[in-house]
Amino acid sequence: MKAFFRNYIKESLASAFFVVCFVCSFLSCSNDYCKEPMDTSMEVLFATRRDTSGVSLQSLKVTDRKRNLLLLEDTLSCSSVRLPLAAFDTISEFRMDFYRSGVPYSKVLVVKHKNTEEFVSAECGCRITSKIDTVYMNNAYHGDSIVVRNKFVLGRFDERNVKIYWNFD
Question: How far from 161 is each of 6, 23, 104, CA to CA, in Å?
Fold first, then answer.
């Protein structure tokens, strides 16, 4: 009888160990972080002093000046845009060409930021998050202003990081 209980306990412990190892290996491979974007893109909203809820820009064209890369060429009106921050640099520059009431505008948006690498997992790799330090326009008109609403850029689509108030008056 003693041998029976000893074998039963050994088999039970072996089975429990197998189940625990299986569950742990299954949980370690499923990572919800991989479903989120791994790059850092900040959201920029457009407004005017009169219309603070939002204003549409026509034919917006956005170019990354450092990489000479066309990011967006939109023939429709848009009131916000997502801009990818440089992953291995602390300054990102974007040239924005657009029309407002038939008048062409060209602005250069400069974003100074600090990047942080986070190791997520072996399957996902590293994720880069950024913290915005300063945002300004090189060729701003008198009255144009920028408000940083959320300094932390995590790459999620519900962030509203920067709001630009244009002076079209």
Answer: 64, 39, 25
Answer whether 0.85 is exceeded by the pTM: no
Same-domain status, 16 and 51? no
pLDDT bucket at 116, cuts 50 / 70 / 90: very high
Under 8 Å between Cβ of 39 and 159 = no
84 close to 58: Cβ distance less than 8 angstroms: no
What region does 54 belong to: left with phi over 0, alpha with psi -120 to 50, or beta?
Answer: left
Number of domains observed in the structure of the chain? 2
Please, is 78 exposed, middle or buried when counting C-beta atoms within 10 Å of its C-beta (0-12, 13-18, 19+)? middle
Task: Note down the domain range covering 14.
Answer: 2-27
